[in-house]
Amino acid sequence: MASRVLVAFTLVCGMSFAASGSWATEPRQFDYMVNCQGCHLPDGSGNPQRQVPAFPGQLGKFLSVPGGRAYLVQVPGSALSGLSDEALAGVLNWMLTTFSPAELPDDFEPYTAREVQRLRPSVPTDIQHVREDLLQQIARQ
Ligand code: HEC
User: Fold this and answer.
1) 88-141 pLDDT tens trace
2) Residues 6+ apart with CB under 8 A from 7
3) Of all protein residues, whose CA lies closest to atom 2 belonging to ligand 1?
4) Mean pLDDT of the chain
5) Cα 117 to chain centroid, rounded
């Protein structure tokens, strides 16, 4: 008897877990959980005190300044991840539309595997400098 109650309880918990979104509902989210979330956190808020930037309210803005689109692929967390070009394109698109939909430019075009393949090999040596430069461009807009 007790074990049957336990089984029912486990089933219900499992279902509400899935429904509440605390478990990956699609492959891009799963890739994010496994490869990126350790630093960037489930809600993309990161850890700004430790130089891990927050995505919400910000990430999409990079797409509206020159160099920003390449930067999101070339930043070490992206470029040096173990993800395939296609998976990285998918995760970046998922991050942009999940964490920063309001900041996306109207003409937003999702990343493709081919574009990621082209941009990925050239990781800037001074990523902090590139980031600061982009943030200044964003601030001037
Ligand atoms: C070890 C921690 C760590 C992991 C894991 C990580 N990142 Fe990051 N990420 C950072 C840090 C730190 C920065 C700030 C730029 C820098 O110093 O590299 C950053 C910046 C970024 C940015 C630019 C955002 C901005 O505001 O400058 C993107 C996009 C990004 N990461 C994507 C990813 C993706 C995609 C993954 C998983 C495939 C990932 N990161 C995994 C630490 C991490």
Assistant:
1) 999 999 999 999 999 999 999 999 999 999 999 999 999 999 999 999 999 998
2) none
3) 39
4) 88
5) 17
For ligand 1, residues with CB inside 6 Å are 35-36, 38-40, 51-53, 58, 72, 75-78, 81, 83, 91-92, 127-128, 131
- Mutate-to-test residue for ligand 1 from 52, 97, 116, highest number of ligand atoms within 8 A of CB: 52
Ligand 1 atom 6: residue of nearest CA: 77
Calpha distance 104→59 (Å, rounded) = 8
Task: Compute, in degrees rounded to 10, the torsion defined by CA atoms 70, 103, 99, 43.
Answer: 110
Alpha-carbon torsion angle 17, 83, 130, 114, nearest 10: -120
Question: Can you read off the two tokens belonging to residue 1?
Answer: 């008897």
CA dihedral of 64, 106, 91, 24, whole degrees rounded to 10:
140
**What's the residue count for the chain?**
141
